[in-house]
C-alpha cells in the first residue's frame, strides 16, 4: 500500500512535466553537467518553465555552476521546494543536502538509489515545460533507476568527447537507452576542436567527428559539436552561465541550435 502511494505520487509529479531531457555520458569529465546547465538556462531564456535536477550522486556540480552553493531548499514533511534561479528556472541538487561541498559522497548503492527516488517523488516542481536532468555517468544501477522512474516523455541527450575511447562509451550508452526503452534525443560532441578567437579558424585538437559518425551508424540524431572554449571553464569556475553571458560565441550558438532539435 505504501509503495503504491509512493508510485502514485511519483507519477502525478512526473505527469505535470511535458518533456524530460536526461543528460547522460559514458564517463565523468566530458562536460555533462556543463551541457545540462547551459541547456536548462538556454530553454529558460526562450521563455519555457524549466527545472534543472542534479542527480549526479558522485559529485553534484550544478550548485557551483549556477552560483547556488550553500542554498538550502525548503523541506516539508512530504515535499521539497526547488531553489529558484530566475523567474522560470528552478534547481534541485543532491549537493544542497550535503553538509559542505568538500564532502566526498560515499553513500552505498541502495542509499543512492533511494535518494534518486526520493528526489523524483518529492521535489515540488509544479507544471514544467522541461525538466533537464544531470544523470550520474555510466550505464549502471543509478542511471537505470533514473530512466525507470522518469518514465514516459523522456529523451536522452548523450554527451561525449570526440576521441575513439569516448565513442565506445557512447555506443554502450545508446544500447543502454534502447534496453530501457528511452528514446535518444541525440548525441553531442563536446570539446570538439577549438575555434581561434583571432582568426575564427576551427582547429581539431583531438581527433574529431567520432560522435557524429557513431550517431549515423546507430541511427540516432547528431545534435552538434561544441568547441573547446576557455571561457566555458571560467564560467563554470565562477558560477555564471556561458549561454547567457556569451550568447554569440560559437559554442553558445551550437547549444542554442541543439535546443531546437531536442
Ligand atoms: P562532467 O559533468 O561530465 O563530469 P563537467 O561539466 O563538470 O563534466 O566538465 C568538466 C570540465 O570541463 C569543467 O571544468 C568544465 O568547465 C570543462 N568544460 C566542459 N565543456 C567544455 C568546453 N566545451 N570547453 C572548455 N571546457 C569545457
Automatic annotation (TrEMBL):
Which positions in this protein are listed as binding ATP?
26-33
Query: Any coiled-coil ranges, and where?
Result: none
Identify the InterPro entries for this entry: Mrp-like_CS, Mrp/NBP35_ATP-bd, P-loop_NTPase, YlxH/NBP35
Give GO MF terms, alphabetically.
ATP binding; ATP hydrolysis activity; ATP-dependent FeS chaperone activity; iron-sulfur cluster binding; metal ion binding
Q: Which UniProt keywords apply?
A: ATP-binding, Hydrolase, Iron, Iron-sulfur, Metal-binding, Nucleotide-binding
Its GO biological process annotations read: iron-sulfur cluster assembly
Say which domain of life the source belongs to: Bacteria
Compositional bias annotation for Basic and acidic residues: 1-11
Kindly list the GO CC terms recorded for this protein.
Answer: cytosol
Kindly name one Pfam family recorded for this protein.
ParA
> Subunit structure of this entry?
Homodimer.
Family designation: Belongs to the Mrp/NBP35 ATP-binding proteins family.
Show the PANTHER family listed in the entry: CYTOSOLIC FE-S CLUSTER ASSEMBLY FACTOR NUBP2, NUCLEOTIDE-BINDING PROTEIN NBP35 YEAST -RELATED
According to its UniProt entry, the function of this protein is described as: Binds and transfers iron-sulfur (Fe-S) clusters to target apoproteins. Can hydrolyze ATP.
Protein name in UniProt: Iron-sulfur cluster carrier protein
Q: Which organism is it from?
A: Desulfonatronospira thiodismutans ASO3-1
Amino acid at each position: 500500500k505504501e509503495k503504491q502511494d509512493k508510485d502514485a505520487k511519483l507519477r502525478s509529479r512526473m505527469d505535470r512535466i511535458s518533456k524530460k531531457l536526461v543528460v547522460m555520458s559514458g564517463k565523468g569529465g566530458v562536460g555533462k553537467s556543463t551541457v545540462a546547465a547551459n541547456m536548462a538556462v538556454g530553454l529558460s531564456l526562450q521563455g519555457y518553465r524549466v527545472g534543472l535536477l542534479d542527480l549526479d550522486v558522485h559529485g553534484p556540480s550544478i550548485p557551483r555552476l549556477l552560483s547556488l552553493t550553500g542554498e538550502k531548499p525548503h523541506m516539508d514533511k512530504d515535499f521539497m521546494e526547488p531553489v529558484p534561479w530566475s523567474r522560470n528556472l528552478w534547481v534541485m541538487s543532491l549537493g544542497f543536502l550535503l553538509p559542505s561541498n568538500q564532502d566526498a559522497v560515499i553513500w552505498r548503492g541502495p542509499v543512492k538509489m533511494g535518494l534518486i527516488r526520493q528526489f523524483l517523488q518529492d521535489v515540488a516542481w509544479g507544471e514544467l515545460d522541461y525538466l533537464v536532468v544531470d544523470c550520474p555517468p555510466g550505464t549502471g544501477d543509478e542511471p537505470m533507476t533514473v530512466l525507470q522512474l522518469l518514465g514516459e516523455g523522456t529523451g536522452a541527450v548523450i554527451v561525449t568527447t570526440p576521441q575513439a575511447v569516448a565513442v565506445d562509451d557512447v555506443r554502450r550508452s545508446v544500447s543502454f537507452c534502447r534496453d530501457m526503452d528511452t528514446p535518444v534525443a541525440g548525441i553531442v560532441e563536446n570539446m570538439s576542436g577549438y575555434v581561434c578567437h583571432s582568426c575564427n579558424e576551427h582547429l581539431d585538437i583531438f581527433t574529431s567527428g567520432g560522435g557524429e559518425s557513431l550517431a549515423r551508424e546507430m541511427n540516432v540524431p547528431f545534435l552538434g559539436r561544441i568547441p573547446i572554449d576557455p571561457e566555458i571553464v571560467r564560467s563554470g569556475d565562477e558560477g555564471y552561465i556561458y549561454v547567457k553571458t556569451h550568447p554569440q560565441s560559437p559554442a553558445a550558438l551550437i547549444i542554442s541550435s541543439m535546443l531546437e532539435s531536442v
